Amino acid sequence: MKLTKIRLTRRGKMGFGLLLLLAMQQLRAESATDTGEIQASDFKCMLDMQAVRGFYVDNLDPDKRSDTAAVAERETGVYPVGSVVQLVPTEVMVKHPRGFNAATRDWEFFELTVSEAGTRIDKRGFVDVVNRFGGNCFGCHVKARPEFDMICETGHGCDPIPITPQMTQLLQKMDPRCAGPRYQPTQEELQLLKQLGG
């Protein structure tokens, strides 16, 4: 077999280089969810994410953030790969590529410890992650009707969570990873924190 050298013009080399760079960026964006190599640093102040009806969404791939937000706003449909869904700072779910885990519709659940220093992943998995309130993440989310892609909201088929909407909002506002002055809870909110063990 005879090998033929390909000569690229300077313009061709620049075009090829740009194409290679774009391909590498796409691979890097997809690699975290393709290989399961999601890091604690992938999780940030949840108030920097997009709020939708009391929960927050984002995507590990910045180019897909609007796609994730669109599904959340619509309330039905399949979330795109890399979607991040969070109700409180210490719990998060991330969407993997189709076929990654059929039982969870490709969602992975994470239990986190958060502080001003950042995020630590304490537990991660598919059907066996238990949150700080003793609830199995999968056990709750699997009850969501199929059109909601395992996202639990009132009326989706999931069991009610053991904290009130007011408690949820307080936990969100007090995410210690958020930059700037820390949120100062009111006396009433301090009582709620005591009920949560905070």
Describe how the helices and strands are arranged.
Blueprint lengths: L9 H26 L14 E3 L2 E5 L5 H10 L8 E4 L4 E5 L11 E9 L2 E8 L11 H5 L23 H9 L13 H10 L2
Antiparallel strand pairs: 1-2, 2-3, 3-4, 4-5, 5-6
Question: What does this entry look like structurally?
Answer:
By secondary structure, the protein is an alpha+beta fold. It has a domain at 35-162. Helix content is 30%, strand content 17%. The protein contains five helices and six strands; from the N terminus they run αββαββββααα. It is globular, with a radius of gyration of 20 Å.
List its salient traits.
198 residues; alpha+beta; 6-stranded antiparallel β-sheet; 6 strands; 17% strand
Strand arrangement within the widest β-sheet reads 1-2-3-4-5-6
Please compute the radius of gyration using only Cα atoms: 20 Å
**Biggest β-sheet: count, sense, barrel?**
6 strands, antiparallel
Which strand-content bin applies to the residues? 15-25%
Shape: globular
Helical run tally: 5
Structural class: alpha+beta
Low-confidence stretches: 1-6, 14-31
- Report, as a whole number of angstroms, the end-to-end distance: 72 Å
Tally the beta strands: 6
Q: Mean pLDDT, nearest integer?
A: 83
